[in-house]
Amino acid sequence: MKTIINSSKNLIIEESIYKFKPFVLHNRTELFQSEEIRPEELLGILHQHFRERLNRSQNAIMIGEFAPYIFGDLLGISEANIKKAALPWLFLYEYSLLIDDLIDKNRPKWNLELLTSQVLLDISIRKFLEVVNYNQDFMNFLSKYRTETYGGILKEFSLSKYKYIQSSSETVVNQGRKSAFVKLLVYVLIKLEYSRAPTTIEEEQFDKICSAIQLLDDLTDFYEDYEESRTNLLLANTLNWLKIKGLNSDGIHIKKDTLFIAMLLSSSIQTSLELASNLLESSSQNIQLNGGIISHQYFVSINQKCLLSLSSMDNFFNSFIMEMQNYENLYLLDFTNNNLTKSKEEYAIESSLLSFCDTLPKACN
User: Fold this and answer.
1) pTM for the model
2) Which CB contacts under 8 angstroms, 24+ apart, belong to 12-17?
3) Can you give the residue range of the structural domain that contains 169?
4) Among the four residues 16, 159, 182, 288, which has the most C-beta atoms within 10 Å?
5) Quick one: average pLDDT of 252-269?
C-alpha cells in the first residue's frame, strides 16, 4: 500500500536538500576557475554552457550537481570522502551535459564544445584516479559504465517518435542508462568508505533512480525536447496516439498547450508518472541505507508528488467522463482547425487540463 506524505512535509524535505548547496556552489567555483582547462578559450565555453544549463533548469535543482551529497548521504558516506569525490564528479557531470547537448542540438560552437568535453573527461579521470590511489578497478568500472552510457544513447537514437514504446520498467531503465556515469561516482564513494565495489543490487537501484529522474526530466522539458526533435517515451507515445487518432503531426508545429493536452488525453503523462513512481519506490525499498534519512525522504517525497499528480488526474477524468469524451472529440477536430468555436464548458475543461502542468513534479537531471 502506497501512502501519501503531507505536502508541507514535502516542502521541508526539499528545503533540507539545500543544506548541500554551499558545497555545490564551492565546487562550481572550483570548476569555473580551474587552471587545468586550457586553452583558456575552452574555459569560457564551459562557463557559457553550464550557465545555459542552469537557466534551462527553471529553478529546479540540477540533481546531477547535487549527486555526490545526495547519494553520499543516502549511502552513509563520510563528509571527508564525499568531498574527495565531488570535484572530479563535477568535471565528469559537465562532460556528460556537453555530450548530451552536442548530440541533441545543432550548436553554433559545437567544435569548441567538443574539445571542451574531452578536456573535462581527461581531467575527471585523472582526478578520480588520484582519489582512489590509481586502483586498476576504477578503469574497469569506467569502461563498464562508459559502455552502458553510450549504449543508452544509441538506444535512444533507435527510437521512432511515431512508434509506440513499450511502457515497462525494464524498457525505461535500458534507455535511462545514458546516465550510467553516475554509477562511477557511486563506485568511488563506496570504494572510499567501505573498500569495496558496488554490488549488482546497488547498481540496479541507482539505475532505477536515474531512470525515474530522466522520466520526470522529460516531463519538465517536454516542449524543448519536442522542438529539438528529441525522442523519448513521453513524446513517442503521444505522437503515436495522435497518429492512431488519424492526425498526422509530421510537418506540423504543435503549440505547447496543444501538445500538453495530447500528452494527457493519450495518458502518456500518467504512464511516465506511474513508471517513475514504481522505479523510485522499488529503489527505496532495496537500497541498503546506512543513514541518509534526508536523502531517502527526498526521493520518497518525489515519489509522493508523482502519486498526488496521478490521483488528481484520475479524479478529474473520472468526475467528467462524458465531458472529457466530448472534449476529446472537439480537440481532435480542432487539431488542424483552430477556428472551431468552444463552449464555456469546453474552455473550462481545457483550462483545468492545462493547470496540471503547474502541479507536475519537477526534476532536472
Assistant:
1) 0.87
2) 13/294, 13/297, 13/298, 13/300, 13/301, 14/298, 14/301, 16/294, 16/298, 17/61, 17/66, 17/70, 17/294, 17/295, 17/298
3) 7-358
4) 182
5) 92
